[in-house]
Amino acid sequence: MTFTSTRGAILGAVAASAVLAAGIAPVAAADPIKIGSVVSATGSTAFLGDPEAKTLKLVAEQINAKGGILGRPIELILYDDGGDANKARTFATRLVEDDGVVAVVGGTSTGATMAMVPVFEDAEIPFISLAGAIEIIDPVNPFVFKTPHTDKTACMKIFEDMKARGLMKIGMISGTDGFGKSMRNQCMNVIGDYGIEVLVDESYGPTDADMTPQLNKIKNTEGVQAVVNPGFGQGPAIVTRNYAQLGISVPLYQSHGVASKSFIELAGAAAEGVRLPAPALLIADKLADDDKQKPVVSAYKQAYESSTGQPVSTFGGYAYDGLSLLAAAIERAGSDEPAAIRDAIEATNGYVGVTGIYTMSAEDHLGLGTESFRLLRIENGDWVPETAAN
């Protein structure tokens, strides 16, 4: 794949190390449709942003190989914020003011996304986020959408499973990062709907290397039947290892924020038996033949793994859905005008992606419910569908 420089990248030469790519080579003489992105391909959240960046390039290449959109190539202008929300906002401004993009897919973390939202809202540029927190789309901002399930939906999926198993008294240990804090709050907001009671509520910081004291408190709290760990990054892997070291025997539920092979590698043997809500992508080879998502999930998995030599992750899947949804919206709009694109994204109905089947509206800029989550368990270092009998 050949990449070409754009005016925005030239103006940003002083930060050239932060530019991952600046355009997909044209497939025709027509003016390209400029699509921007800011992801965290390096830094502390690179395990999320690196597969996103690679996926965006892959999808852009696939689109252009098929003739582009509206008979025009897309030009992907992609920046790496290194996990820094301030840099994310700077690059967002550059995409609008210098690069002249008509839409944006990106925002690896909730923090980076929220830093960029005002830029794109003010410029009235459609923005599809790849981050998890519900605050991104609730309340609804006219030009802001997202592809990952919300933390609220993850809580609901977990509590549905707990209630079905009679696990009604639980402990919580949450990260204090943006995602962990948000998911913890969302879980507390909906838990009463399931009749589940939190007996002990602990937390840990982003740089903490040992959660034994908090887990000991949970272990010694009488009546705890299960534990939920809202969080992402290395924290949940440390929690999982400490959990096993302390011999805690009640079920441990993680969030969709750890739905990647890197979590299993970091947690090691301690990950065995961990349950979590995740997209169908993680069990692509185990989906039924009549599952509507199977063709899309299988095609993405094969293309990504062939292209990168790395296992597919749900985070790359969010990027796949983001750019694919955007491309479909531009085709339906018949225009690259930002306002028309925004309207077409909002009108998405029954779009089958790797994360779920999307149906958006003026009141819902995500379009996924709990049914799009699969409850999984880690077994022999891999993901398997969880059932009430397991």
UniProtKB/TrEMBL annotation:
The keyword Membrane does not apply. Pfam families: Peripla_BP_6 (PF13458). The keyword Nucleus does not apply. Keywords: Amino-acid transport, Signal, Transport. Belongs to the leucine-binding protein family. It comes from the Bacteria. Residues 32-380 form the Leucine-binding protein domain. This is ABC transporter substrate-binding protein. It comes from Mycoplana ramosa. Residues 1-21 form the signal peptide. Gene3D superfamilies: 3.40.50.2300.
